[in-house]
Amino acid sequence: MLKIWGRTNSSNVQKVLWTCADLGIPFERVDWGGKFGGNDDPAYRAMNPNGLVPTVQDGELILWESNSVIRYLCNTRNGAGLYPADAAQRSRVERWMDWQLSTLNTPLSAMLWGYFRTPPEKRDSAALAKYRLDAITLWQMVERQLGKQEYLAGTDFSLADICNGIWVHRWYQLPVERPDLPGLMAWYRRISKRPGFVAHIAGPIS
Asked: What domains can you pick out in the chain, each with its CATH number?
């Protein structure tokens, strides 16, 4: 059975849990990181030199880096529906996965930490205001993409929607003013009905 080290409020752990749910993969999960600690445990660092979560064990194989993990799960568990075998279509999925890591993560993670994990008296209001504007620009880009199709990479739900869907859920829970983006909201409502979202993403963020 797959073994996952990681706390359930980690966006990167949530990617793996959601993918497992969509693919019907059984797993054992161990609370790790954040308030549970363990990141600097020598045995854990021996598995994952970054000391971050998630770390995943599949038999003798140890995996880390969430996007790499979910690609692997699709490649080994008949996940072509989420991660297409066709190279061109796969590239459409992968660019949105990479965009989430390289671009969307920056303002959304900063706002998550600023509003939910930083005491009010220690918040950098100016920085948070800038990150909000940056995030709006990025969500407007997604809005334009969703004006052409139902899902980020095309007509079908994919890993691209998992990676970015976790963050749209957080976006709509942040205590900030947001522009009306009907395509984004419609997409959010569609993906929020999926069993993996309901089981592992829905609810308050922390």
From this structure: 2-76 (3.40.30.10), 87-200 (1.20.1050.10)
